[in-house]
Amino acid sequence: MPDLILQGATVVPMDGPPEQPLGTVAARDVRIRDGRIAEVGQITPTTDDIVQSIAGLVLAPGFVHGHVHYCQTLFRGLADDLPLLDWLVRRIWPLEAAHDPESTRASAELSVAELLRGGATAAQVMESVHHAEVSLEVAATSGMTTILGNCLMDRAGPDVPAQLTTTADAALAAIEQLSDRCRSLPTVDYAVSPRFVLSCSDELSRAAAAHAVRHDLRIHTHADEHPDEGAAVRAQLGRDAIEVLHDQGLLGPRTSLAHCVHTTARERAILVETGTRVVHCPSTNLKLGSGIAPIAEYQARGIPVALGADGAPCNNRLCMLTEVRQAALLQALSAGPGRWPAAHAWHAATRGGAEVLGLADRLGSIRVGLRADLVAFDLGDPTRSLDGDLVSRLVYSAQRDAVRHVWVAGTPRVRDGVLLDLDHEALQRRAAAQLRLLLSRAGMTR
Questions:
Q1: How many domains, in total, are found in the chain?
Q2: 20 to 30 Å CA-CA from 182: which of 149, 335, 395, 406?
């Protein structure tokens, strides 16, 4: 295959030190060869090269979604205006319990289309207890770099549908099966994924942690999302969530915790001591009334931070441009303007996300040798300002329509804002039909 040269864009490489994470922003060309970045600079094409001019656009690494639930995208708009525990008990758990393989596939395919259209080229995905193998197939064919795990839930209760729990032995067998399948997939890694502290027995949590260590797997779970959740954890277990996870062996540099909104001083110290990472989901934390995570403090203490949209029914968007803006604005409010500026939000959505997920040696920066996962943004619309700091314009002004082109491993997936190899309208039709069947199985009208 001939090389592809992307010519004339303003490149935001994201290869700088923590205090200046953007690197040197300048007009440059990028050579792509065999799906990887082969050269960055002023490039003189040969007669064999394919040249695509993207002059006037801004070229950046693809977004890395740190936390998303593909299986929930079908439920968008079905669980609004509820706090976390009611949201789970009244809507999400019954809906997830009603999934079958076809509805799971429709939901995952719709998720991939939305993420690609919004400039995401990598994602960490937490799926439901059952049918995660279907989402795994969708992830593998998407071309996106994906870390995926099935929820572990063996603690049943009156509020949890019976179909949504398994025995600890069955959960461990599912881990074995899915992690084995991932080993043969070049773009999908497996993450051991307890749903949250109260969903798993101590026996399952410890066995899952041991399996992750034995096979060098990532671990992903929710923690300290909502005050009511924290109160329930303390009432049942006598300690805070991160203390419990630490005791069970689930924390460390290969672990990322979604949310971490309401951490105690002791829990924050544990995060630092263990090297555990945090995935911030600002829009979801607002919509469920959970609160504002202390992200500026986490960064100051050296806790790595990524961004995620979480699920469609607790956000209604899977758009990283929404999350970077929301995250930066919320830290200006909670920590003070300038404590966590636009450049740090952009870092968390790109290279920082790759670092949190253990993918920084593959993607997240525009550097020679990394995957050519790239997004070209159009900031020409005067509503995105005509001048000023470039990354501030991206973070505070740009919306999804600013995403002009997307390449995944050098392959164009979005051109001029249009998905190239996915029929979004056909996906929506299939999803609508599957949602009707799912609602019927769940005994709901909507």
A1: 2
A2: 406
Q: Are residues 165 and 221 located together in one domain of the fold? A: yes
196-240 pLDDT, tens per residue? 999 999 999 999 999 999 999 999 999 999 999 999 999 999 999
Q: Is the pTM of this model over 0.90?
A: yes
Range of the domain at 280: 63-356
Element (H, E) at 390: helix 390-392
In whole angstroms, give the CA distance from residue 280 to residue 300. Answer: 15
Phi-psi sector, 115: left (phi>0), alpha (psi -120 to 50), beta: alpha
Domain of 25, CATH number, reads: 2.30.40.10
For residues 39 and 114, membership in a common domain is answered with no
* Residue 272 and residue 164 in one domain: yes
3-state helix, strand, coil in the chain (%, to 5): 40, 20, 35
The answer to whether 165 touches 142, Cβ cutoff 8 Å, is: no
Q: Which two tokens stand for residue 381?
A: 């619309």
Q: What is the pLDDT of residues 245-300, one digit of tens each?
A: 999 999 999 999 999 999 999 999 999 999 999 999 999 999 999 999 999 999 99
* In the block, residue with structure tokens 């600002």: 282
Q: Burial-class residue 158 by CB neighbours within 10 Å (0-12, 13-18, 19+).
A: exposed
- The alpha-carbon radius of gyration of the chain (Å, integer) is 21
- Tell whether 433 is covered by a domain: no
Boundary residue ending a domain (306, 325, 356)? 356
Pairing between β-strand 36-41 and β-strand 26-33 as defined by DSSP bridges: antiparallel
CATH of the domain at 178: 3.20.20.140
Q: Tokens 């002023």 label which residue?
A: 42
Residue type, 404: R
